[in-house]
Specification:
The structure holds three protein chains of three kinds. Chain A is α/β, with parallel strands linked by helices. Chain A has helices spanning about 5-15, 40-50, 75-90, 100-110, 140-145, 170-185, 205-215, 230-235, 295-300, 300-310, 330-340, 340-350, 400-405; strands at about 25-30, 30-35, 60-65, 95, 115-120, 130-135, 150-155, 155-165, 190-195, 220-225, 255-260, 270, 280, 290-295, 320-325, 350, 375, 390-395. Chain A has two domains: about 5-260, Aconitase, domain 3 (2-Layer Sandwich); about 270-415, 2-Layer Sandwich (Aconitase, domain 3). Chain A is built from 13 helices and 18 strands. In chain A, helix 2 crosses helix 5 and helix 10 runs parallel beside helix 13. Chain B is of the alpha/beta class. Chain B has helices at about 20, 30-35, 45-50, 70-80, 90-100, 140-150, 155-160, and strands at about 5-10, 55-60, 85, 105, 120-125, 125-130, 135. Chain B has one domain (about 5-160): Aconitase, domain 4 (Alpha-Beta Barrel). A seven-stranded mixed β-sheet of chain B has the order 4-3-2-1-5-6-7, with helices on one face. By secondary structure, chain C is an alpha/beta fold. Chain C starts with a helix and ends in a 7-residue tail after the last helix. The chains are: A alpha/beta, B alpha/beta, C alpha/beta. Chains in contact: A-C, B-C. At the A-C interface, helix 3, helix 11, helix 12 and strand 16 of A face helix 3, helix 13, helix 14 and strand 16 of C. Chain B: This is 3-isopropylmalate dehydratase small subunit.
């Protein structure tokens, strides 16, 4: 029987010829990413709970400080210091303040066919390069760090067959939010989401990362795409080669299949407090906002910033709106400087911060207060995610967020 | 102004800055009452809880140096401190204290003559008696006494605006 | 008898011909500045005092800088209170994310030579760089000015500081002011005015002078004044009038103290933990390991500061496991530093570049440290606990020294 991409990656990592959904296998991991959200807890367990603490293969570890940087409290600083000291002592690849973890991983590490654990739910982003990335908690992470291995339940796969092209003013962000709205926040629980079809050629790497990244909001264990020239160009430009380029077999079994014509997608917002509570953006017009956020591992890449900059050039941020623009990495920031994008945002009155998770994580930057409303390109709009429990978060595309920042209320780019 | 009171002494050193009196971290708390528990926390985290109403602080030179944060004298007052007696005061802190009715007394010698827990007797505008010794103190200039006598700058302004 | 600069400004402002130190006079205020931390308190006191309108809304400037971007949920309450106050009383001069108050006050043209200006921040002394009398006050006092447009002050004595000669390479105005604070002590100029003169000072940019007037409060000074010149006029976008040029200490003016330095004698110095007046030459501290470097603040976050750092960092990298945080002082400076490639150079060297604001200097966010960590910073204060716990060690230095330390991962003399 044929296998899906997810099954093929797991089979390779387990050293077996074939696996099928529902099997549990012990797998060899290629890479282990952890960030400052939880690494301090992993270190505590490593130091206190293990009889013979050691690291199986330190070269597989990548540790990234991105959630609270620059640090906002002595407590945060202490947890960063713990992480920094440990990384230095053990020779772990360590990144601090260089960007959001998933973006750093895509730019510097991920290779097609790899199996990667990340101590962060949005690790599924790596599927944009045909890698099986999945989020784990720090106990799973610790086990993998010590043994180099883990167990994995082979997921079923939902396949999305994309055709056509997104219309002008509609973005991959609208597409993935539409899909999450359609299948629901638990619609792909324990499953892999695979994106294929003619429409893929019309989606850039930035689009693809944005799509895979958000799949966890439908409950997915991972997201996967085939490795085509667009993916290979991205990889080669960064001096890397694939490990394996897998495609699902024609006779592979899928739990469900959806056909989506990209031309039917329209600008969408996800309403507070659930990512799957999506409505057409035009139905949310006029909602007054206090803050807008363009950034995150979901939508802080160059093409996202470009969309925002093109809209705001020659315009101003609404005086009562705080518009945070946060590149996903320093690579993105420097590229955006070269294109004049950062200049455009600064001239328009935006608040341009260093590459980090920022208000998507809701901790140290641009926190919103009681009764305030944020429109965001971040990953989540859960209750209180961006600050006060009585605040509201709408999720939308870079275009809708920027347009709203200009108007002071939710609006779409075509209405400016 | 020949009022006399006795008080227990807390002794602090030179250059007690406003970040020590109230760290920036706590400045956005809603009220002075919310903030006061953090008073002096970088230097002596336990001090705020130990101060009793009517106590005085005896400090070295340049007390209150640093920022313009008026929470500094307000917190000292809210902790129940009757007066701060120091070798000298920083300028902004001095104004802020007067404007909030916190009594400041300048004296160059007392600091070296008392230890924590001592009891002293203060006669306003005249002298301090500590451990059997007398330390003369000056009276404040009239324009400052006017503000203090009005009960602080807010009350002085309310009077000016015909409210009280 | 002749007058010092501050005596001239006060005399002109009050119309009292003969003002002398110790006199208590009422000044007419030309401009006031309120920042985000204190606006709720100013608003409360203003209304409690029974005022119903501002004495002159155009003379009031409200600037959000300490809390931008908000790091705690309650921070946004300050913006809401500020916005409501500005709307209610018809204030137009509101800056919500344009940079640090002290940078904006002169940069955006709110302060001109000879003005009398008060702000709810101790570093309001900064505007002496353009020959204005400016000083920090509390929020109650500010509320009273908002209603009356006046404030009582005691005419200060003046300390005259003369500096002649050419500064050595990699020695900046920051090294001068740190040395002066060390020599005077943290309370050495309390209640007094500083007056800077000499050809070293005359040859300085306004930005370099700003660093010195900014830090005057760290030796207790009420204000710190420079005589306006062509550079001042150009910076302030005004015509240099005779009145401005006359803001110079008279030959027969009375000074409480006169200090003279030779520029050639200055060396790169640092203020050691945890007092600003604990000054030591960088050469005596070399080898001290550091964890972080901060370049920014109203003291040293200007274009020339960033450019000097970039010059040193160009083609190099920040030491492994050391963070360099750069926070430009204003939106305008950020844009200028973008345009001339400074920010790109700094980013390539590994700097973390944040939006303009007070950042780490005020200790609310922007790179807070933890027990046992050491930071070299270009700002104005190294008080105990200011950037984290009381076990954080803060060294203050010039941007040149700070940049060199970032590369080395330890304290070094900039070369």
């Amino acid at each position: 029987m044929g296998m899906t991409i997810a099954e093929k990656i797991i089979a390779a990592a387990a050293g077996v010829d074939s696996v099928k959904a529902g099997d549990i296998h012990t797998v060899e991991l290629d890479r282990l990413m952890s960030n400052d959200g939880t690494t301090h807890l992993t270190i505590d367990m490593y130091n206190n709970k293990l009889k013979n603490p050691h690291i199986a293969d330190v070269k597989k570890l990548v540790w990234i400080i991105d959630h609270n940087i620059p640090s906002d409290s002595p407590k945060t600083a202490a947890s960063h210091k713990k992480m920094r000291d440990f990384a230095r002592e053990h020779g772990i690849d360590f990144w601090e303040g260089k960007g959001v973890c998933h973006q750093i991983m895509m730019e510097n590490y991920v290779r097609p066919g790899e199996l990667i654990f990340g101590a962060d739910s949005h690790t599924c982003a790596y599927g944009a390069l045909g890698a099986f990335g999945t989020g784990v908690g720090c106990t799973d992470y610790l086990y993998a760090m010590v043994t180099g291995k883990s167990w994995l339940l082979v997921p079923e796969t939902i396949r999305f067959n994309l055709t056509g092209k997104l219309r002008e003013g509609v973005y991959a962000r609208d597409l993935i939010l539409t899909i999450i709205g359609k299948i629901g926040a638990a619609g792909a629980s324990y499953m892999a989401m695979e994106f294929v079809g003619d429409g893929m050629k019309n989606l850039t790497m930035d689009d693809r990362i944005s799509m895979c990244n958000l799949c966890v909001e439908a409950g997915a264990k991972t997201a996967l795409m085939e490795v085509d020239d667009i993916a290979l160009d991205y990889l080669h430009a960064r001096g890397r080669e694939p490990k394996h380029c897998f495609k699902s077999d024609e006779d592979a079994v899928f739990a469900a299949e959806y056909d989506i014509d990209l031309a039917t997608i329209e600008p969408i917002v996800a309403r507070p407090d659930f990512v799957d509570d999506v409505i057409p953006a035009k139905e949310a017009l006029g909602v007054k906002i206090d803050e807008a956020f363009l950034g995150s591992c979901n939508n802080g890449r160059l093409s996202d910033l470009r969309v925002g900059a093109d809209l705001i050039r020659g315009r101003k941020v609404h005086p009562l709106v705080r518009f945070l623009v946060v590149p996903a990495s320093n690579e993105v920031y420097e590229a955006a400087i070269k294109e004049g994008i950062i200049q455009t945002f600064m001239e328009a009155g935006a608040i341009v911060m260093n590459a980090n998770c920022s208000v998507c994580w809701g901790s140290c930057q641009g926190v919103i207060g009681a009764g305030e409303t944020l429109i965001s390109t971040g990953t989540r709009n859960f209750k209180g995610r961006a600050g006060h429990p009585d605040s509201k978060v709408y999720l939308a595309s870079a275009a809708t967020v920027t347009a709203s920042a200009i108007k002071g209320e939710i609006t779409t780019a075509d209405k400016l | 102004m020949s009022e006399t009171f006795t008080a227990r002494v807390w002794v602090l050193g030179d250059d007690i800055d406003t970040d020590i009196i109230i760290p920036t971290e706590y400045l956005a708390l809603k009220t002075i009452d919310d903030m006061k528990q953090y008073g002096f926390s970088p230097l002596r985290p336990e001090l705020a809880a130990q101060i009793q109403p009517g106590d005085v602080i005896v400090a070295g030179k340049n007390f209150g140096c640093g920022s313009s944060r008026e929470q500094a004298p307000e917190i000292i007052k809210a902790l129940g401190i009757r007066a701060v007696i120091a070798k000298s005061f920083a300028r902004i802190f001095f104004r802020n204290s007067i404007n909030n009715g916190l009594l400041l007394i300048e004296n160059g010698d007392l600091h070296d003559a008392v230890k924590e827990g001592d009891e002293i007797e203060v006669t306003m505008g005249e002298r301090i008696v500590a451990n059997g010794k007398e330390f003369p103190i000056a009276s404040l200039p009239q324009n400052l006494l006017d503000i203090i006598n009005a009960g602080g700058l807010v009350k002085a302004m309310r009077k000016r605006n015909g409210l009280d | 008898m002749g007058k010092t600069i501050i005596e001239k400004i006060i005399s002109r402002n009050t119309g009292i011909e003969n003002v002398k130190p110790g006199d208590i006079v009422t000044v007419n205020v030309d401009r006031v500045m309120i920042h985000d931390i204190f606006i709720p308190f100013v608003a409360d006191k203003f209304e409690e005092m029974g005022f119903t309108k501002l004495w002159d809304p155009d003379k009031v400037v409200l600037i959000y800088d300490h809390l931008v971007p908000a790091s705690q949920i309650d921070d946004t309450r300050h913006f809401q209170r500020g916005n409501a106050f500005a709307a209610k009383y018809g204030m137009k001069n509101v800056h919500r994310s344009d940079g640090i108050c002290h940078q904006l006050m002169t940069e955006a043209g709110y302060v001109k030579p000879g003005n009398v200006v008060f702000g709810t921040d101790s570093h309001t002394t900064t505007y002496g760089c353009v020959g204005a009398f400016s000083s920090g006050i509390g929020y109650t006092e500010m509320a009273s000015i908002l209603g009356t447009g006046t404030m009582w002050i005691k005419v200060p004595e003046t300390i005259k500081v003369t500096i002649n000669g050419k500064l050595p390479e990699n020695v900046t105005s920051k090294d001068i002011i740190l040395r002066l604070i060390g020599d005077l002590g943290a309370d050495g100029a309390t209640y007094q005015a500083l007056e800077f003169t000499g050809d070293t000072v005359a040859n300085m940019t306004v930005a370099s002078r700003m660093t010195m007037s900014n830090m005057a409060i760290e030796c207790g000074a009420k204000c710190a004044l420079f005589t306006p010149d062509e550079k001042t006029a150009e910076y302030c976008e005004v015509e240099l009038t005779d009145e401005m040029k006359d803001l110079v200490g008279d030959a027969d003016a009375h000074y409480v103290r006169e200090i003279t330095y030779r520029a050639e004698d200055f060396v790169p110095v640092l203020a050691c933990p945890s007092q600003v007046d604990k000054i030591r030459p960088a050469s005596e501290l070399t080898g001290t390991k550091i964890d972080q470097v901060f370049i920014g603040s109203c003291t040293n976050g200007r274009l020339e500061d960033l450019m000097r750092a970039a010059e040193i960092l160009k083609g190099k990298k920040v030491a492994p496991f050391v963070k360099l945080i750069v926070t430009p002082a204003s939106r305008k400076i950020y844009l200028q530093a973008l345009e001339n490639g400074t920010l790109e150079t700094l980013s390539e060297a590994g700097a973390i570049i944040t939006h303009p604001g007070c950042g780490l200097c005020c200790g609310r966010t922007g790179g807070i440290l933890s027990d046992g960590e050491r930071v070299v910073a270009t700002n104005n204060r190294n008080f105990l606990g200011r950037m984290g716990t009381s076990k954080v060690e803060i060294y203050l230095a010039s941007p040149a020294t700070a940049a060199a330390c970032a590369i080395a991962g330890e304290i070094v003399v900039p070369e």
